[in-house]
Amino acid sequence: MGILKRLVVIDYLDQTLKLINPQIIGSSGVQECIEGCLSFPNRFVKTIRPQRVTIRAVNENGEEIILTGEDEMAKCFCHELEHLDGVVFLDKAVKDTE
Question: Which of 32, 70, 80, 98 is catalytic?
């Protein structure tokens, strides 16, 4: 019998987060981002993301945790959790109207 888990590891600045079954439980604000991904080397697009994101997950010790990220970390939470649903940052690209 298999065990279904959705796993994300985020290594940002001096913080490594290991998140099991993460889900966004709140967001607020808006920020314009320039976003890239290791899956698509040398590709960058403009995206619109929440400025603040709160997630719930289980950590590597089996404990439920709630984390809030702002600015770059909020973008990172959205980006990485979308990967779990098969969504990549290119799907979120904003077309310039200029």
Answer: 80
For the record, the structure tokens of 47 come out as 């995206």
For the chain, give the number of residues. 98
Strand partners, 94: none
Q: Could you write out the DSSP letters of every residue in 38-65? A: TTEEEEEEEEEE-SEEEEEEE-TTS-EE
Query: pTM for the full model?
Result: 0.90
80 tagged catalytic = yes
- 47 vs 45: CA distance, rounded Å: 6
Distance, in Å, from the CA atom of 61 to the CA atom of 46, rounded to the nearest integer, reads 36
Question: Cβ of 47: how many Cβ atoms within 10 Å?
Answer: 19
Residues 21-38: tens digit of each pLDDT: 999 999 999 999 999 999
